[in-house]
Amino acid sequence: MMREARKKKKTWLWITLSIIGLLVLSTGGYAFYLYKSATDTVASIHEELDRDKSPKRPDKVTFTEKDPISILLMGVDEREGDKGRSDSLILMTVNPNTNSTQMVSIPRDTRTEIVGKGIQDKINHSYAFGGTDMTVATVENFLDVPVDYFVKINMESFKDTVDAVGGVEVNNTLNFSSGGYDFPEGTITLDGEKALAYTRMRYKDTRGDFGRQERQRQIIEGVMKKGANISSITKFGDMFGVVRDNVTTNLTFDEMWEIQANYKAASQNLEQFQVKGTGDKIGGIYYYIVAEEERLALSNQLKQHLEISTDTAATTSN
Q1: β-pair partners for 282
Q2: Distance (Å, whole) CA 292 – CA 84
Q3: Which of 42, 56, 123, 230 is in Cβ range 3.0-4.6 Å of 235 for a Cys bridge?
Q4: pLDDT of 163-203, one tens digit each?
Q5: Could you give the dihedral angle defined by the CA atoms of residues 49, 55, 56 and 59, in that order, rounded to the nearest 10 degrees?
Q6: From residue 45, how far is each of 48, 59, 150 by CA, in Å?
Q7: Is 178 helix (H, G, I), strand (E, B) or coil?
Q8: CATH class of 12-158+233-306
Q9: For the segment 94-142, what is each residue's pLDDT rounded down to a tens digit?
Q10: 36-53 burial string, b = 16+ CB within 10 Å, else e?
């Protein structure tokens, strides 16, 4: 497995939580209004999975006992009249006992069993077949670890998020053009439309999905940076509106605050990993093929970080 590890201060989780939770802490006289808006927003974006807990976790997570948790971050491309598909899948494991967080990017073309369909297909097709439930089950089967929570962001409307904070700055490492815009190397400022084009480019980047996921993280971190400095009540209202329109999660408001209370320090030590595989065509269709030994090694690594047994492994074939 090819691994690229580095530390970052912000992650997808803290971005989402900052928008609908942490911002409440920085507002003084607007505290009650923001608390009410935050709780209403979280209630409106709540989406339950069709189960009580993951079948791969014997007991429910207890935050006060600092059980390590996993969160599936889903960037979904949903357009009017289309079922949509998952554009980006990142599994985050958070261990408050070691104060560490691991993020694994799963290439959208990864060939694996689609749980509930009984076929081998690209992992991102699981969302088109069965929505959030099938995607979560498929990721669990592929990595043989529990997915405790998910945060789903509609990438098609992601431009609204960027515009709500007044644009973002990113450090672009690749000179390219996409969607009618030019993106030179260096520090660039992006509005919502440009940010969407920036994150969607894939074929001009030799890193493929990994390059695109890196650009998505840059945009989201930019949103976090700008959002944390918002002081206008109007801007807060805009941000809550964007979250209501573009984000869903099975986390409750209380669970978000429990995570902040017991897990926040783990975000300061972040490792990012890529799944090693090779591109190949089967029946004329391109797939990202992950060797079984690579899949098992990654699975065991995640199990160790989640402090669960490594004695068993999924039976997924690639």
Answers
A1: 285
A2: 29
A3: 230
A4: 877 888 889 888 889 888 998 999 999 998 898 888 878 77
A5: 90
A6: 10, 26, 12
A7: strand
A8: alpha beta
A9: 999 999 999 898 988 999 999 999 999 999 999 999 999 999 999 999 9
A10: ebbbebbeebeeebeeee
